[in-house]
Amino acid sequence: AEVEETLKRIQSHKGVIATMVINAEGIPVRTTLDNSTTVQYAGLLHQLTTKARSAVRDLDPQNDLTFLRIRSKKHEIMVAPDKEYLLIVVQNPCE
Amino acid sequence: MSSKKTSAKKQKGGKKAKESSKGKRTELDKNDEADLSMASIGHPEIFPLVFTTKTQEIFNCRADEDVTEENCFKLIKKEDIIQDMKTRATVSDFHPVKKIILEYPGEELLVVFDAKFQYGQNFYLVASEEAKEDLLKPPETVEEKRDDDEKEEESEEETLEVQPYKPPVHKPWVSLGSEKEVEEESVKETITKIKYRISRVRRKFGAPITFTDKNASHVKDSYLECTSYQDKSFSIKMLEKDVGIQMVPKLREAITQTTWTYPRNAATQYFPIELSNEEKEESLSSGKLKEFLTSVHLRMEIALQQNEIMNAFFDDWKALTEEESSSGGKPHVYLKAYQSFTDLHYFKDRTISCFCWHPTISGIIAVSTRGRLSYEERVNLSDKSLLQQPVILFWCSFDPTHPQLVLECPEDICCFQFSPSDPSIIAGGCINGQVVLWDISQHEEKLQNVKPVADGTEITAVNMPSLMQVPQSSTEPPLVRCCAVSSIQDSHEKPVTDIHWLPDYSEDNQMDATSENRAETSVQLVTCSPDCSILFWDNPAMKPSSEKLKEEDVFGMPLDVPDTSKHLDLCWKPLVQINLCENDTNAEYSPVRISFRELHCQYKTSDVPAKQSLYRERSTSSKNVKVLESISTDLLVGTEDGDIVYSDWKVEIDSDSEKQVSQKHTQKYTIHTETINTLQRSPFFKDIILSIGGQTFAIWKEGVTNGPILHSSCSAGRYTAGKWSLTRPGVFFIGRDDGNIDIWDLLKKTYEPSQFQNISESMITFISPWITSPNQHFLAVSDDLGILHVLEICQTLSQPSENEHDTVLDYFEREVKYLNYCEHEFQEYQELQAKRESKSSWRHRGRKQYKTKEEMEEQENADYTMFLDLEKQILADLVLVNRQEILSSLDTWSPLPPLEPVSFLFQDLFISAENP
């Protein structure tokens, strides 16, 4: 329930297009998009997050990745990584 | 004898003399008398002698007297010869053979007269008795033979007689000296042969033999051995030795077999791992997820809020320039004249009805013309030869004086379109209702290759072998005939005023399901005409399994027409015919323009001056083609009367009457007073439509049924053409009948054009903007004189400002809201009115009737007009609006901020109006 509530709140922000929760293996657990797109996002972003994290840790072993924002022309993809899960939100930042 | 001697001597003497002269014989030595003989020639007993005459007299052997040829033998006594020799000693002819004569055994020597000098002299001596005998005898036989021969010859001459066989007579062998040779050659045993006799005891014959071995070395002297020994007296040390060396490469053959890797197609199919629903639920409810979210959501929200607050990547610098350019000095001329095309030959006394930019090849415009005569004049002008052959000309921007291509039309073309999927197919609608197709794929290359031509030079013409040229010079453009003409009976009855290509997914076919044509070819056409019908045409030549090379030569098309639609010539029938009729009044619409929802009609240009509309009877034919279910069939129709009808064209069969009842949910708006000449959807917003007719234009939004979002005020002249701008969402161009172009910018002013510019003197018939390159935006304008002007749109008009799209969208939304609000207000008013009515009717029955809908509308309009006037006055007082000439009574809605206070006035106004 709390999970639902949090996700709903995030989804209701202005300009948010999609919200996804991915587990550690890259398998989507919860999503607001259709399956094929979700799977695509999950696969790609999971790998990217791993790479980003390893980059950060290589540079400074005591550092760790907290947030990843990818801004593109059309929208912005925000990834919040954690030990087991990954929260992905796609937002359209233009006012 | 002596004679013989002498003869011998003579012989000798003669011989000497003779021998010295003849080379055969050797030098005679005086002492050597034996050589005188004819031994050298095998006759040792013959001695040639020379007899002198004296000697001949002595011995009575005178030549030719005593001794003749026949009788050549002379026997001379030995004693005589000796006597002669003694007497004459060496003078004697017999001196050379003296010795022989002395030794001669016989008594008489034979001397032969050698008349023929057989032996070299005239006489010869025969030295031996035997020879003498032989010579004496054989001559006899020879003589006898000769006689016999003579006899025989004589006898043979007379008669042939068989000679009696005479066996050969034994003759004594005459030695001719050969036995000596034989003797010399023969081999005789010189050594006596030794004879041995070996004997053995008889009993030992045949006895068994025993062999024994014996060592040879044991027996003494059984073998001899010559052992080699080094001879010390003879030793040479070899200092040098010739040795030959040959280098031979070691040749080795080896074979190995490698594994040959060859490329193989490999495919992997995978699908992503997904959690099943239960697992998902499980993980959702797990505590870990909760923890995760609690830790993460804060970050996420911060980020989201950041985005909402401001755009972190907003480029202020860039935005600055935008503002500068827009607020800075405005360019004086917004539309710069770029080029103008006209043709004196084809366009004489003709107006341009429609033109199209070529979708793919930049710089090519196709222009169609039609006569300026009105309908009655045309009918009266029965002599068609005076009418010029209508054409569509292709112009290239590089060469404004020579058209590139000429398409022959059977009739005047009112409108035409390039097929969006295949720009070499052009469909046109004729003035008599037919639909015509051209295929210019042959000339596609030529059009693409047109290069900028300097004045006076020829057009680069690519050789087209199948091109049939009218006999003319090479600078004349090629003439293309239409390749398909629809059948006259099945076409429209009135001029085709609008033609569209339908993209693939709205294909009608016999099956129910939507067959999405992935090839994205435009297969169908839809045409409309004021005869109240919309026809859907199927172009089978455009199907993916294109049968362009059909060999059916049914109608005998001329050779230069491509094969694409040969079979469609004059038998092309439409698929579906839709008759537009009003549901309520059973009247019909006469569509002039159509606009589909699912289809973007971007290149619609067609100018039709207002025609006398005649209501036609409903045409009967309708095909039984099932219409697809899943596509949207909404249709917007602009009619000849100025109505805008929003309906869908799905043909439904009414089960009761079995008639085709179409156009459910139709809405009709009558705003324009005259024929609608433009109905176009905005290229940016699919549901915003611009309609132009008569003296006003209107902007509509689909779904908003109250009315147009924006309705312009009446202008002084008529609007004859219009188009949305391709780049700016809030800009559109309108052409007028006085040759002006009005540029409306919705973001600046909505009640009047932001710019206007005069382009030509006559009426503008068609407008079409185009983008050839990111910096060059063109607006092509055609006028009634047959001139096509191409104008370049200046930067401000072509470049959208930032967020213009959103701004315009906002504007439209606002307008819709306002409309709704007004509607709402109106409803409220109506309710109020109704209440009042009921009250008053209760009081004054029969005095006031319930107002009908139209009356209410009229009332409202009148009130609204008053309201607007009031508003204007107030605003003018507030000095918020520039005083400009307002030419009409109806005003546009101006989206001014002080909306709220006005609404209060509105209400008051109504109330005040109500109660005079």
From TrEMBL, chain A:
<comment type="similarity">
    <text>Belongs to the GAMAD family.</text>
</comment>
<keyword id="KW-0206">Cytoskeleton</keyword>
<dbReference type="GO" id="GO:0005868">
    <property type="term" value="C:cytoplasmic dynein complex"/>
</dbReference>
<dbReference type="Pfam" id="PF03259">
    <property type="entry name" value="Robl_LC7"/>
</dbReference>
<protein>
    <submittedName>
        <fullName>DLRB2 protein</fullName>
    </submittedName>
</protein>
<keyword id="KW-0963">Cytoplasm</keyword>
<keyword id="KW-0813">Transport</keyword>
<dbReference type="InterPro" id="IPR004942">
    <property type="entry name" value="Roadblock/LAMTOR2_dom"/>
</dbReference>
<keyword id="KW-0243">Dynein</keyword>
<dbReference type="GO" id="GO:0005874">
    <property type="term" value="C:microtubule"/>
</dbReference>
<dbReference type="GO" id="GO:0007018">
    <property type="term" value="P:microtubule-based movement"/>
</dbReference>
<dbReference type="InterPro" id="IPR016561">
    <property type="entry name" value="DYNLRB1/2"/>
</dbReference>
<keyword id="KW-0505">Motor protein</keyword>
<feature type="domain" description="Roadblock/LAMTOR2">
    <location>
        <begin position="3"/>
        <end position="91"/>
    </location>
</feature>
<comment type="function">
    <text>Acts as one of several non-catalytic accessory components of the cytoplasmic dynein 1 complex that are thought to be involved in linking dynein to cargos and to adapter proteins that regulate dynein function. Cytoplasmic dynein 1 acts as a motor for the intracellular retrograde motility of vesicles and organelles along microtubules.</text>
</comment>
<keyword id="KW-0493">Microtubule</keyword>
